[in-house]
Specification:
Helix 7 runs antiparallel to helix 8 and helix 10 packs antiparallel against helix 11. Strands 6, 8, 9, 11, 14 and 16 form a 6-stranded antiparallel beta sheet that branches. It contains 16 helices and 16 strands. The protein is globular, with a radius of gyration of 23 Å. The two termini are 36 Å apart. It has 2 domains: 304 residues, ADP-ribosylglycohydrolase fold (Orthogonal Bundle), CATH 1.10.4080; 132 residues, Jelly Rolls (Sandwich). The chain is α+β, with helices and mostly antiparallel strands. Strand 8 and strand 9 form a beta hairpin.
């Protein structure tokens, strides 16, 4: 994800549709032995693939929204040094640092704490996970749609690689870790993105057939989830149009392109499952070729640095570092000791640490470590429990705070200032109110998290819901046009949201201002893609 897309949500009022079930004991199919040399080579290939893919796609990121990217892609292997500043890599290295300090089994809140207090910038579900930590909201609630409108976003998907890397042939072990880490910032399909990507790697250690790797990874997520459905659609479309990925892309876009909550009503789509589908499209149509896979995944568009990063990492595990193009190997090795943004990790350290944790995971799960070899007790995939962050939720419309006509209206009392040019109205005076009335089943109020942000009380249909704190100045970052409050699952009909400026603030804030820019209205209805099916022709 790129640093100029600044959206997240610290919000309340949604009861998610969840089915909980206990994970069964591990079922072992067989024992597979890899040499330590081969395992290390694959680990190096996975990390190198992340670095290569993310820098290849970086200049195209979100330049193709709802369309394919058809301009030239300019990249040379030495550009891989740009991976040092990519959140695809530095966030998960903080999670590895957490394991270094507190062990693999450290509680989720400790992982959240270290990433919240890190010095790098964050966006979307990640920044909401950071904000939630400082507001006293911890996992799994920090990723829950009650407190995170970005629950289905791509964040965990792009930072779950290390989990698969340390769990060769052990998808159940990967799911156990992913369940803990993923709910720091995501829920439902957003968490399944991480489960699925990690499972791709666990399978790729032992299987070179791309289709078999994908089908095995699908077994780690619920078949009923939208994430599993979109991946199966890509598989069907690949069979229907085996030589034309653009035709397959167009069909996929018709069905899934507008399934988007946090950026509802916009072409910008950071949804985990749509971008996950682009990973699989690149892998299937790339046919195992690194350059072709990387190009197709990138040209699918949207978050087009994250997606090739995951796709090439899968090939890196399958092929091993030694089978990547020589110029790519040389470029990665040339920066092997350079530290990733605000971490103590370099490529070389990440490889060494991953090798250590992989052996630990193998030994802890019934495998054997000898002087030269590693014997893995291979686990059968078991699907995670079903979660649906936003069942039957559909976008209705956006209403700017300066709108003065229509049945959806804003009313202010007190000394609210602002202009259309600065895109928001604001007040820091205790007792000032801003009221929004709308018809629907949910709403997100957007505004600013900034250095001078204050505290407001929120009322829904006349009843107090909670206080919100709009202060934000972490990692020298502020966020404008971000979700400051939301509530969903309301009865169909007319509702009113009222924010009352309290005139109080976080001790760190320089002011008491509350900024409001827009309302996003949602309704409950059947989603447009629900009756849209693909069949093998």
């Amino acid at each position: 994800m790129k640093n100029y897309f600044l959206f997240a949500a610290m919000l309340f009022g949604f009861q998610a549709n969840t089915q909980y079930k206990k994970q069964p004991k591990f079922k072992n199919e067989q024992t597979v032995t890899l040499s330590k040399v081969a395992l290390l080579d694959k680990i190096k290939g996975g990390w190198a693939g992340k670095m290569i893919g993310v820098t290849y796609g970086a200049p195209t990121e979100f330049r193709a929204q709802g369309k394919t990217f058809e301009d030239s892609i300019k990249w040379i292997p030495s550009d891989v040094k740009g991976s040092l500043w990519q959140d695809d890599i530095y966030v998960q290295l903080t999670f590895m640092e957490t394991m270094d300090q507190f062990g693999i089994d450290a509680p989720a809140q400790k992982f959240q704490e270290l990433f919240a207090k890190s010095g790098y910038m964050l966006w979307h579900a990640n920044v909401q996970g950071r904000k939630n930590y400082f507001d006293g909201i911890y996992p799994p609630q920090s990723g829950n749609p009650d407190f995170n409108l970005h629950a289905d976003d791509i964040d965990f998907q792009i930072e779950s690689d290390y989990i698969g890397f340390i769990c060769p042939g052990m998808p159940q072990s990967a799911n156990k870790i992913a369940d803990k880490i993923g709910h720091i910032m995501n829920y439902g399909d957003g968490v399944y993105g991480g489960f699925f990507v990690a499972a791709l790697y666990t399978a790729a250690y032992l299987e070179s057939d791309i289709s078999k790797v994908i089908n095995k990874a699908l077994l780690s997520i619920p078949a009923e989830s939208d994430y599993a459905k979109i991946i199966n659609d890509v598989i069907i479309l690949h069979k229907n149009y085996p030589a034309d990925w653009r035709k397959a892309w167009m069909e996929l876009e018709k069905k899934w392109g507008k399934v988007n909550i946090c950026e509802a009503g916009k072409t910008f789509n950071i949804d985990a499952k749509l971008n996950g589908a682009y990973i699989i499209m690149g892998l299937l149509y790339g046919g195992g070729d690194v350059n072709k896979t990387m190009e197709i995944t990138t040209r699918c568009g949207q978050d087009s640095d994250c997606n090739p990063s995951n796709a090439v990492a899968v090939l890196g595990i399958i092929k091993g570092f030694s089978n990547l193009p020589l110029s790519y190997q040389a470029a990665v090795l040339a920066m092997g000791d350079s530290l990733f943004n605000n971490t103590s990790y370099s490529f070389n350290k990440a490889v060494k640490s991953t090798m250590k944790y992989a052996q630990e995971m193998v030994a802890n799960n019934g495998g054997n470590i000898s002087e030269n070899d590693i014997s893995i007790k291979v686990q059968s995939p078991v699907a995670a429990a079903l979660e649906d962050a936003f069942p039957k939720l559909v976008f209705h419309k956006r209403v700017n705070v300066f709108a003065i006509q229509g049945k959806d209206a804003w009313v202010t009392t007190g000394a609210w200032a602002g202009s259309i040019n600065n895109k928001s109205k604001f007040s820091g005076n205790g007792g000032d109110e801003i009221i929004f009335s709308f018809e629907g089943t949910g709403v997100s109020i957007e505004g600013n998290w900034v250095k001078d942000g204050g505290i407001a009380a929120v009322f829904v249909d006349g009843k107090f819901k909670r206080n919100i704190d709009c202060y934000f100045d972490y990692a020298k970052q502020e966020h404008r046009g971000i979700n400051i409050f939301h509530i969903l699952n309301l009865p169909e009909g007319k509702h009113t949201i009222k924010l009352i400026v309290k005139g109080t603030k976080n001790p760190k804030s320089t002011g008491t201002n509350i900024y409001v820019s827009e309302a996003v209205i949602y309704k409950t209805a059947a989603k447009a893609n629900e009756n849209y099916s693909f069949y093998v022709q």
